Amino acid sequence: MTGPSEQGTPVVVAPRLDRVIAPTGYLLCGTPRTGSTLLCSLLSSAGVLGRPESYFREPDEGAWARRFGLPVSGERVRDYRAFVRAVRAAATTDNGIFAARVMWGSIERLREGIDKPSHQSDLTALEAAFGRLAFVHLAREDVVAQAVSCARAEQTGYWQHGDTALRSPERDLAQMTDLVGTIREHNASWRAWFVSNGIHPHHVTYEELVAEPRSAVEGIAARLQVAVPVTWQPASPHRRQADRMNEEWAELLRRHQPDLGRSNG
User: Is the CB of residue 88 less than 8 Å from the CB of residue 261?
Assistant: First the structure.
């Protein structure tokens, strides 16, 4: 590409590399109870940012495979490469943007399924399967509140809008303390994984998402160089579930375990 110089001699103008290497999809990486279900519904509703769901959550693999019309053995799909192709088709919007949600506990099964060679980085293998990817790291600043929310969801079976609570929640400080440790471990694993693969993720916190859902979605869209439709409104059936019980349990947990703090680090 050329353009005129001040002396009239053509000057070579480098192409805009950001346009050439723009990602064609993204993985939303996080831990439970960080607002990922809310964020997925908002991103899907925009119509241009893929259709992120937990396609690769191992306990749900059989259900997704059957939905795609793929044969299974037990609760595992028989042909994982066919599964990947089906997920890409289902999770890609008309503008070519692919999206999926992945929790840390799903990484190993995903590696196994795409048959990653031992000499190859996870990033290279993932991009061979899904195209050029961006990564969004979703975390919660208040990890104690996150652990309380996880405990209630695990006890009751009520994870999101549409679920039915199977039993009443019971205050269990030991369970919540263990969950704080697990959440921090998984957050640390994500950070180490990003570094080892040379990935610079786009960061979104639960607190930012709840306060400014439009900004959260537009930030991801900017990373993908995609324009959100001007008529889009950030509406979702999923709402913040925390109530006074959550607050009381979190206060009690901090009082009994002051070393837990709040940070997800």
Answer: no
In order of 102, 106, 152, 172, 236, the CA distances from 176 in angstroms are 23, 22, 9, 6, 28
pLDDT on residue 4: 47
Q: Is the pLDDT of residue 162 over 60?
A: no
Q: 133: Cβ–Cβ under 8 A, 6 or more apart, which residues?
A: 23, 24, 25, 26, 27, 123, 126, 127
Confidence of residue 237 (pLDDT cuts 50, 70, 90): low
Within a 13 Å sphere around the CA of 40, how many CA atoms are in the beta-carbon half?
A: 23
CATH of the domain at 100: 3.40.50.300
HEC assignment per residue over 137-162: EEECCCHHHHHHHHHHHHHHCCCCCC
> What global pTM score does this model have?
0.83
Residue 233, both tokens:
């409104």
Note whether residue 11 is domain-resident.
no
121 falls within a domain: yes
Cα distance between residue 215 and residue 75, in whole Å: 38
Quote the number of domains for the chain: 1
Q: Greater confidence, 11 or 228?
A: 228
